[in-house]
Each structure stands twice: as C-alpha cells, then as structure tokens.
Amino acid sequence: MAEGDNRSTNLLAAETASLEEQLQGWGEVMLMADKVLRWERAWFPPAIMVTSLLLLPGLNQHGIILKYIGMAKREINKLLKQKEKKNE
C-alpha cells in the first residue's frame, strides 16, 4: 500500500513540477501586461496603438472587426431608442 501511495505522490510531484515549468514564462508576461495596463511608462499608450494597428489587417480578414462594429451599432441604436422613449 505504501508503494502505491509513494508512486502517486511522485506522479503528482512530477505533474506539479511540469506545470510550474510551463507557467514560468507566463509570470513575466503577466507582470508586463500589468505594467502596460497601468500605463507605468509614457511610451506604453503609443506602443499599444502601433501594435493594435498592426493587428487590424488580420482581424479584418477574419471578420472580427465587422462583428464588433455591428455590435456597437446595435448598442448605439438601442441607446438612442431608450433616449427617445425617455423624451416622450
């Protein structure tokens, strides 16, 4: 019985070590993303804009931009209708 427990403990330790190794690089990415979202540096906003502009052609190719434009139009129309009802 102790051998089975020892084997499962070793397996769990190996899986944990593997997962920890896989996630090691993401910690640095998350720290950088946090810094960007908090705009800790003056050049972050322009860097985000340039990066976004580079992604636009790929997003447009897959129809993602048109999808979000359509969603935005529907929301704007919904808000305008609510405003009209409120004014009546």
TrEMBL record:
The keyword Nucleotide-binding does not apply. Keywords: Membrane, Transmembrane, Transmembrane helix. The chain crosses the membrane at residues 42-59. The keyword Transmembrane helix applies. One of its GO terms (biological process) is cotranslational protein targeting to membrane. One of its GO terms (cellular component) is Sec61 translocon complex. This is ADP ribosylation factor like GTPase 6 interacting protein 1.
